[in-house]
Design goal:
Length: 471
Amino acid sequence: MRSKLQQVGLISFGAVLGIMLSLNYSAIADKETSAPLPIDDLRAFSEVFGKIKSDYVEPVTDKKLFSEAINGMLSGLDPHSAYLDTDAFKDLQVGTQGEVGGLGIEVGMEDGFVKVVSPIEDTPAFRSGIKSGDLIIKLDDTPIKGMTLNDAVKRMRGKPNTQITLTVLRKTESKPLVITLTRAVIQIKSVKFKLAEPGYGYIRITQFQEHTGEDLAKAIDTLYKENKAPLKGMVLDLRNDPGGLLNSAVAVSAAFLQPNALVVYTEGRSEDAKMKLTASKENYLRGAQDDFLKHLPPSIKNIPLITLMNGGSASASEIVAGALQDHKRSIVMGTQSFGKGSVQTVLPLGNGTAIKLTTARYYTPGGRSIQAKGITPDIVVEEATINGESKDPSLSLREADLERHLSNGLKDDGKTAAPVAKPAEPEKTKPAKGKGGANEKIDPTEVISKNDYQLNQALNLLKGLQILQNK
């Protein structure tokens, strides 16, 4: 029996070495990894592997053990590193193209439960009232405690038109909420737009996908044609935008910035993780794609611009807001953003799976690390009460609230940033009742709601800037 266990241990040891090689565990790649392999730790791993194979109450396949071991290694690093099995890897690839099945929730893991980062607009989760910060504790009759994040996500996905019941804890509620949702094939419309009123355009980006930059260019062109004259101002709405593709964030920034302006740079341990991305087509186009920004109206680079953001604005949306703010191209209005300033690289493995590994932090042109801090708006405007429910800013979930979140990475906590306008004190007053009042119903399916307090404040500011400009 002992020799059999030793044989299993040796096989396990060899397998671990193979896994490490597949994850680019190489002494040549980085000086810091040039130390000898941790033989004692690997021996302990092989002993545990052998004990599970011989003594666990039920037989366990090697594939499951290694899969869980890899998953544990990655999930123990930070909230965004993860192991992607074949299904999860395919879903990730499909999701960046704007179509994915399921409920429409950006999620993470906390205390063994699924925590909602942000519901995605125009999805079953969004329409059912799921909110940022909600803690999902049960899927149908199955408690989530003990599941991995991938397992929970798999259960939430399913055939369109089938139902699933979520049991949700919310800080503002005294007892769990039971919410039944109908799964759907979610086709996420990345860019929505409308003339807010004559002369003033409004563009909302719900998520940064493969064609977001191209769709933005079409939206700008359409708004100019509908207005039948150059626009006087523009509102770029990034509220509750959970992020997405980095090149799309560069494309959106490039639409409003001067050519070759620095948009974002990244710093990591490997040379591949160190990048400087500017507002040039090489950084946002893929392959031989035609430059969709070259025909934009020239005035789009100079018209007054206000960017709206809130605690649900994360990752790519923070890159855009930070770039526009540092270059003083836009006034950023709203509330503090989520604070996800890390770069995840998807590294495919040879068996159809992949790992999503945090490889760098990103920095705004002025040198600010957004990680665990977020973008501070130039003008702080709190959200009004929605559908009669009070909005408590302290209940918003942010990166710094997540377990094992990556540190900011700057000893001065981001104080090397280029100077930006000092944020105003948060609005203390609520909109008056009546037209645009706090207690009127808001239809989430509208592109523009007359009761959107933050948007109304942005439009008022644009009009004020227009008056000053005319003088």
